[in-house]
Amino acid sequence: MARSSRDQTPLIFAIFDRTPTRLTGNLERIVISIVIAGVILPAVFVVLAWLLNWSLTPGGPNPTVGDIWTMSGGLMGYWSVLFSGYAAYQVKVISEKYFARTRFPQIKETIDAITERMGKAADKPASALRSERFIASISVTLGEVERVPGHKMNELIKRAKAERKVVVDWINDETQNGVIANTKKIYWTLFQTLQEISQEITAYMKEQGAK
Amino acid sequence: MSYNETDWVRAITKLVELTSKQEISWDIFTEYEADAWTTVDRAYMAPLNDRYYVVKSSRFKKYVDEDEWFWAIKFEFEVYTQEIHSDYVKIASAPDLSVISTLYSVVESNFAFKQDALKGLLD
Q1: ipTM score of the complex?
Q2: What's the confidence (pLDDT) of residue A153?
Q3: How far is B51 from chain A (nearest CA, A)?
Q4: Do A12 and A36 meet the contact criterion of CB atoms below 8 Å apart?
């Protein structure tokens, strides 16, 4: 998604054109452009002052050594605030990345275990599924995926949650006790959505591994 | 046009569903196209609409460096056709998807049930 928007990137973004990560996406570009803008702002200000004959030095048109020290010191301080802000942002990005790196393999394993269980339990009637543990772990696992920052799977998770609710309602419906799970379309839709999430996690891990 | 991963997931989900409903039946298959780098432990095949769906559990040597390796397991899903009186021809193989391992385990337990593996023990 982020890649398709690359064609209409403004120049300022294109200067530091780095491949947007799935994790940070466009946010990283915005942050970088803010930093660049912040760095060149004093230069613009100086040029403007020169053009409009503003006096930049407190001691009159001829700057003293003290003036130069004050101005360059101020400039350095200004830049260091900018760069330390950027560094703090990058630390956050890296820590999120490593969080995802450690969490996703476990979550994927859980999802695969759930779908395997679903596949094997599909020949059971609703009344027998009530005691299955995987039904309860679906929503927990979906919540775990949701809490990993930068996952870009909101649509899939929303779908899975809605489908899970329909399945659970069906399982708990007293009139449906004898209905076998594999005859229910929604059971397989949920199965498929969970597999898609698992697939999406694999793709994500591959992308992260390539970096 | 080509199939994307979601298509494969959908198709394999459908096979899991049909297997669970016992609308298709799987048998052991040996005429798969062999590959020198992988050892097939077990392959099952199910015919459906002139297509032969094959799910394999195979091992391959995964190298950690130039000469150290270990056996790693992968599950593969392939589609074959067959002209009359000729060999099976592979027409497609699925990308590496986790749903294939699910299919394999469902097929495996289904096959065991079909073969009456616990015959006489459950009386």
Answers
A1: 0.76
A2: 83
A3: 22
A4: yes
